[in-house]
Structures are given as structure tokens and as C-alpha cells.
Amino acid sequence: MNRSLSWAAAALPFLMGASALLHITPTVVLKAQADVIRETVPGAAQYFAKTVKIGRDDLTRLRTSADFTPEDPDVKFYYGTGADGAVRGVVLFPQVNTQHGPLEVGLTMAPDGTVQNVIVTKATVETKPWVLEALRSGFTRSFAGMRFGDDPTRALAGVDRKALGPMPYYLAEVTTEAVKRGLAFYGILYAAQGQP
Amino acid sequence: MNGLYSLRRADPSVRLGTVLFLLLLGYSYVFAFLMVRHWAGLTPSTVSSVYVPSPQLEESHMEMHSQSTTQPLDFSSLAHAQHQVDTDLLIQDSHIHIMIYAIVAGLETLIILGLEWGRAWRNIVITAAFVSGGLDFAGQWLMKAGIGGFAWLTILSGWTMATVYLAVLAGTLVALWPRHRTQERTA
Known about the structure:
Chain A has helices at 2-21, 33-40, 56-66, 128-136, 161-164, 166-190, and strands at 27-29, 46-53, 74-81, 87-92, 95-98, 101-109, 115-124. Chain A has 196 residues and is an alpha+beta fold. Chain A has a single domain, classed as Sufe protein. Chain: A (Alpha-Beta Complex). The longest helix of chain A is centred in the last third of the chain and has 25 residues, at 166-190. Chain B is mainly α. Chain B has one domain. Classes of the chains: A alpha+beta (196), B mainly alpha (187). At the A-B interface, helix 1, helix 2, strand 2 and helix 3 of A face helix 1, strand 1 and helix 3 of B. Strand 2 of chain A pairs antiparallel with strand 1 of chain B.
């Protein structure tokens, strides 16, 4: 019996260690892409997906204007057209990968080329509370009306960093970086081609 | 006596702890199954799509000008954003999971040593307990290296882990079954 108890006693720290070590942060969808498209481009007679394979000349422009190199060679734009064939809005989902996991933004552009809506669509279990806190500050509304070439960091001007806290503010900055990349994608890969 | 000790003759507290450990482990496996089904799927094609890297931007293979294609949008294709395990996450997962697999296999081994199984069967199950954990992540890393065909290795390893668990649970319950123990005392 003593031997059996010894085995049980030896196993206990392993069990405690196993439970303490578990630390996995899977991604969480805050808003489905399909819902963002339907809600921010409502009433379209038809929706389309346009996939742009980035060329070397546009890659240079992206690096110059937004100071980043995309990881994926393809960028997708989703747009809806009315009965008259006119584009009602364009949605894209730029993503920024951080050490805390990916953050994806749903960026809706109005037909006049200005930002209509910004919403965070994907975060991680770890970052979700900070993202939600940042969103509650309402800073994403400040992106409205911006266009390619504008400085998206202006949206952070009205955010009180101390009141919001360091991590929510960091996630607000990551969101702003995603918007910056999205504007560059839109301006260089979509609007510059002058067609849906 | 086959093995290191006899679980059926062990102190009641040891037997109680063993059964509760196995039941709680099974409880966690139910959620592990649901998590795998949700994030990775249960078929080789869905599992490999989680691990095999997406095409990366390689300048040497790029055209000079951007090319575009347009298709009517199928909303159902957006219903489930594909979960991807990148290299950083796989390193983190490997570090945690392989360690826990080793701990669980070690604890299962402690139980197996008390089940009075024949040596050959005992060694087969112990080996399967440890090797399945290693092969699970070997499959994941091979997929990450771009060899999607190794999804079957990860799937097979998962089912092997479950089989080992069920064998140990069944062996424990049989060994500790009151009627079985009463017969032994009578004999």
C-alpha cells in the first residue's frame, strides 16, 4: 500500500503542472465577413468577389505608401451593385499579425472612395477583451470620410491613452494599422484600376 | 503479479484517485474532440488545410502588373473563415501539447503497471501512449513543411490516443469492478 501511495503522491505535481501550463489563444470571429458585407452594403442586387493578384509594380507602391509587404499574394475585394450596375460599396478585410495573434478589420468603402465603416472582425481569445474595450471608445467612427492618402492615425487623436489603458490602446493602434493597409489595398489595387 | 503493483489490491484512496483521474481525463477529451472538429475538422483534407501554408508572396514569381478576376460572390464560401495554424502558433502548441502528452502518457503508464496485464500487451499500450503523442505533432510539422498528405498521420495518432485511453479506462474499471474483487477475495 505504501508503494501505491508513493506513486500517487509522485503523480500529483504532474497533474498540477499540466493544468497550469495550458495556454492556447485561438482566433475568435467577432463579426462574420458575410454579415459585414450584407450590413454595410445593403440592398445590392448582386454581390461580387474580385481577387487581385499583386504585381511587382503595385507591390512597390504598397511598400512606399503603406510601408508594409503583404504576406498573401492575393487580395480580395467584395462589392455590391445596384439594379443599374453601379457599385454601392466595396468591402475588404485587411489583417495585421501581432505577437498576440491576428487582428482582422472589415473596411467598407463608399462609392466615392471614402471610408464608410470600420469594424474588427477577428481577434484572439486573449485580445478580444482589449479589442472590445478599444471599440467602446468609439474611435473607429473617426475613420469615416478618410480616403487613400489620408493618415488613419488621426483617428487616434481623440483617444485618451491613459483612460483607455495600454493594451486596449495598443489594439486601437493595430486596428489603425489594418485600416492603413486596407486603404492602400483599395487605392492601389482597386480604385487605381478604375473599375469594379 | 504482472507489472509493478496491483491496482485492485491498492489502498481505496489510490483506486478512487485513479478512476477520478481517468474520468476527468475523458471529460477533457470530449472537449478536445469538439475543439478539433470545430477548428480542424476530422478528414485529411480539412486537417491539412489548417496546417499546409497558404501561398506566400514571392517576388521572383510575380508578374509585373497586378491581375484580377471577378466572380459572383458565394456567401456560403465566407460562412466559416478558415482557421490557420501558423508556425509561431505551432511552436507554442508543440511546446505545450507534447509536454502534456508526455505527462498523460506517463500517468497512464503508472496505471497500466498496476493492471496486471501480460507483458507484451502492457508494452504495446505503453508504447502507443507515448508514440501517438509524438506522431501527432510530427504529422502537424510535416504538413507545415508543405506535405499535406501527412494529415492521416495526425488523425491516426489522435484516434490511437483515444484508443489507449479507452483501453486503460476499461482495464481499470474491470480490475476494480466490485464483483471481480469479491470473487478474488473468495478465492
